[in-house]
Amino acid sequence: MKISTLVTAACVAFQGTAAAVVSGKPSTFIRDYDKRDLLQDVVTWDEHSLFIHGKRAMIFSGEVHPWRLPVPSLWLDLFEKIKALGYNTVSFYVDWNLLEGKQGEFRADGVFAYEPFFEAATKAGIWLIARPGPYINAEVAAGGLPGWLQRIKGMIRTNADDYMEATELYVASIGAIIAKAQITNGGPVILYQPENEYSGGIPPAVFPDAPYFQRVIDQVRKAGIVVPLINNDAWSGGHNAPGTGLGEVDIYAHDNYPIGFDCSDPTVWPANGLRTDQYSTRVEISPNTPYTIPEFQGGAFSPWGGWPIDKCAELVNQEAERVLYKNNYAAGISIMNLYMTYGGLNWGNLGHYGGFSTYDYGAAIKADRTITREKYSEAKLQAQFLKASPDYLTAVPTNLSTTLYTDNVNLAVTPVIGSEAPSSFYIVRHNIYNSTETTTYRLNIATSAGKLTVPRLGGKLTLNGRDSKVHVTDYNVGGTTLLYSTAEVFTWKKFDSGKVLILYGGPEELHEASIVSTAKPTIIEGKGVTTKSIDGNVVLQWKTSASRSIVKIGDLSVYILDRNSAYNYWVPDLADGSAVIVKAGYLVRTAATKGNTLQLTGDFNATTPFEVIGAPKSAKKLTINGQPVAIETSKSTGSWHGLVKYQRPFINIPDLERLQWKSTDALPEIQTSYADSAWPSADKKTSTNTYRNLTTPTSLYSSDYGFHYGYLIYRGHFVATGQETTITIYTQGRNAYGTSAWLNGVDLGSNAGDAIVGDTNTTYTLGKLSKGKKYVLTMLMDNMGYDGNWVIGSDSMKNPNGILHYEFAGRKQSDITWKLTGNLGGEDYVDKTRGPLNEGGLFPERQGWHQQKPPTNGWKASKPTTGISKAGVAFYTAELDLHIPKGWDVPLSFTFKKTKSNEKFRAQLYVNGYQFGKYINNIGPQVDFSVPQGILNYQGSNTVALTLWAQQPSGAKLEGLSLTAGTPVLTALENVELVPMPKYAKRAGAY
Ligand SMILES: *[C@@H]1O[C@H](CO)[C@@H](O)[C@H](O)[C@H]1NC(C)=O
Ligand SMILES: *[C@@H]1O[C@H](CO)[C@@H](O)[C@H](O)[C@H]1NC(C)=O
């Protein structure tokens, strides 16, 4: 379609729907600066913001990866918790690696299906930004690229035909699934990001390569994607910006992680973390698109041997949200996605080798879906504010100054000045952004009543440590003008009964607000607010305290809170576009009206007094989670009051050490009697791997045989001459990997790994071997996954794992013949339900014993806390019955007790066949392994399986293993469905 025809049609359409345009006009839909076709008119934009159906929208978004919580019936819970924050959008990556484990076979069903994710988003009223790669990085194994790409010749993420062809099926298939869910088809998807952080390359790759990127775009368009395309430049480097020609996206976007990933001392924010040139840089790079950050720091991840993940929540805490996010508002951001908002879990080998089994990320919502971090509440204050402030979307950032707007040079202020509407936003922070000083100031502002210095009633404002404030001027509260407020706006609403404005401040701060009104103020609740009428304004001044004040001025009620109290307020939308304000506790999810009943849903972690402010006039009754609740109407405010009782249920948490554990040897391969005739032979004399040249007679790269994830086992056969002295083996399995080796059952030693060592050269002393006797060297290795491919031209994803080289002293290399195995079937993986990455190559995994009802007849009764007495691997399984009462959301995790002296062992935890943890006692740091309901049957029996690999001659046992339950939350969450979990069945061809 040519642009001219579409634009004409669109202009007519927009004239027809002018009433739907709230503020501003979508005039720049006519993009004469840009000759690309516009394929739809539902999602448009100008330099300020997106328009959705012609209406300006702030896109406040949180990143969630559905595959990091593989329980589709829990996705609605995440969406509702995000919607309750006041966000309207979720951004998601798709991990190609999980969907095309075998080249040419794309599978996105069961826990890997996207339709339920889209349905849940729609139900919660959340828009989606789709980011399916093909490359995603995302701290996943291989950056999301399937292992078989190690065998292609062409460079990854380049225009090489074999690489592009390898992506075709995936992009066409996932593209079609996403295309159906676009907003143009009534679905939730509003934006699409092809590729990922296309920002760095080295020779021999051409970088940046516009024809390559254009080909990626063409693939996406061919798959039916019509919504605007965004990119995510890793920094504001201008790659693929509109106007650059071939390979340009529609809306330029860049990522930003200002305080980095070092959570070791979470109180340290690095030097120069905060950018002050974001607005000017964006205008230079892409003047006609809204300022978009598709990944802004929402937390951080922790590596093997690193810090407990809560430290990352501390680094990127509520103070970081205040300082860093408000700095984005100072740059006029209108599309902001916080990476991560729910991080989730690196189950079944999907994580990269730089991290362990949780991807909690220290995010606002914890991996166990609880929302007790203060940063969740702070994010809500900000998102609700922007949701209530449409004028922000057209306000324009001006230059930051340390002198013009306050009387204190230690403060930096950026005015974001109203253009199409009068409201302006003065964003204040410490000039040294990580300062922990307490700084007082008076603020100079320009208002419709002239230039003012506030507070006007005397005293000083305070910026307390790592904080930042948005001081508004000429702020529109449903037709009443808030001339200014030094206290921050949480939200405001226009109800049948009048307007409510909620202001909040930090503890003990002095604040002042001025409302344009000649009405006489009445204090209807609290004390401590001074009122004064000045020049047609009612000026309020107060010192923040934990007790609430309400001042009524005409039809406006100003609620004055401290920040901690504001955390308890929620603003659930009603279907007609209005909302109610609810003061409660842990979570308010939704509001609806039916007849004369207001229906609320929410979760409670304590007995909670609640208040409903602004119930619709038609509503006389209230239900919470479907139950009628008694209410009293306040005479002074008209609000409803009531109480939700919480009676902590008795939850019987079984003692894992007292389960009926059964155990069997998991490494029969080290016995001399073991026959590996059914194993694949490592007999490929050449390798197509372009990353590393073969230095062995046959390839021992696991990828050449289709084994990419989980434990690998090699068996090298030779007939001794008696001349052998040592074998030196160079292995690579990546950070924190380990190995153990045996010769005819004799322990040659283990390498128990190191957090940052990914490859090792080990020399094994063989002793005196008998001439003419057959020997087999069995080597077990943990394989932590492949590299990402961030730098184009490095082809680092192709760096293989396995045995990369060996030397056989006194003999020829070719005197050894090798067999190897990983997961049964390799790329022809057996377990289509749990996907291509879930299981590794241990004997019990190949048999499928990690699933329910394994054939334990004849196994001995032994538990993991008894363990084994020599190097080797034991397999344990037990039934775990749970009887968690329905209606309660109880986070459960498996907790390993670390031994005092760093005993060398590692374990894998399987729950109902899904691998939910890799524990490494001598490396850590993870000891708690959250397992979601739905994987765990909360009302019935479960099969827990554990592999315990002792990497020291004395063997190993678990110091302790327990099930840990968090606070039971009385929940509105409906029945959580069990995911498909095939039971053990004898596997054809299992060896
Ligand atoms: C703050 O930033 C400075 C550099 O500007 C740095 O030297 C210092 O370590 C940081 N302090 C804290 C507590 O984050
Ligand atoms: C209940 O939730 C609130 C708000 O998230 C939190 O501050 C508090 O610690 C929680 N209480 C318990 C017992 O978990």
UniProtKB/TrEMBL annotation:
Region described as Disordered: 843-863
The entry's keywords: Carbohydrate metabolism, Disulfide bond, Glycoprotein, Glycosidase, Hydrolase, Polysaccharide degradation, Secreted, Signal
Location of the Beta-galactosidase domain: 392-569
SUPFAM superfamilies documented for this protein: (Trans)glycosidases, Beta-galactosidase LacA, domain 3, Galactose-binding domain-like, Glycosyl hydrolase domain
Group of enzyme by EC: hydrolase
InterPro entries: Betagal_dom2, Betagal_dom2_sf, BetaGal_dom3, BetaGal_dom3_sf, BetaGal_jelly_roll_dom, Galactose-bd-like_sf, GH, Gly_Hdrlase_35_cat
Family: Belongs to the glycosyl hydrolase 35 family.
UniProt-recorded name of the protein: Beta-galactosidase
Lineage per the UniProt record: Eukaryota, Fungi, Dikarya, Ascomycota, Pezizomycotina
